[in-house]
Amino acid sequence: MKILMVCLGNICRSPLAEGIMRHLSDKENLNWEIASAGTGDWHIGKAPDRRSTLAAKQIGYDISNQRAQQFSQDMFNRYDLIFVMDRNNLIDVQRLARTFEEREKVKLFLDNDEVTDPYWDDSLFEPVCKQVEERCREIIKQLS
Ligand code: 4NP
């Protein structure tokens, strides 16, 4: 399984989802390939926001070596599933799909809900991180 996690900046939410999902799927020996990307281009090449890195570290995950990249159309081919963090991401990524199959690969990470963008509120990083961890465990149960 090849999974891409997508948010707006690729420095807060999707790096958490990438690092946590990689760690948990590796622990289960699933041999999944996990990556993340942002719909925007502002943070290309940057490390995750330090608040995300800290929140992840506090519950046992190291995401500090990950680097931001921008979503591009070739990623539709490279990944089986593309999980987006909110409905704006869903619109932005689906707009780039060229076929029905590409469009169908794009799903809300939380199924029917959005992961709140924590960028402007420090207090959101810890709950977002825990929510992402919980959902990663569920997805592993569903797909493995
Ligand atoms: P992310 O959060 O989409 O979870 O990475 C954001 C990061 C940066 C910005 C917005 C959201 N920004 O406006 O730079």
UniProtKB/TrEMBL annotation:
Flavoprotein recorded as keyword: no
Phosphotyrosine protein phosphatase I domain location: 1-142
Keyword Hydrolase attributed: yes
MF term (GO), any: protein tyrosine phosphatase activity
CDD domains for this protein: LMWPTP
EC numbers on record: 3.1.3.48
Alphabetical UniProt keywords: Hydrolase, Protein phosphatase
SMART domains: LMWPc
Enzyme active site: C7, R13, D117
A Pfam family reported for this protein in Swiss-Prot or TrEMBL: LMWPc
Gene3D superfamilies reported in the protein's UniProt record: 3.40.50.2300
Recorded family membership: Belongs to the low molecular weight phosphotyrosine protein phosphatase family.
Name under which the protein is recorded: protein-tyrosine-phosphatase
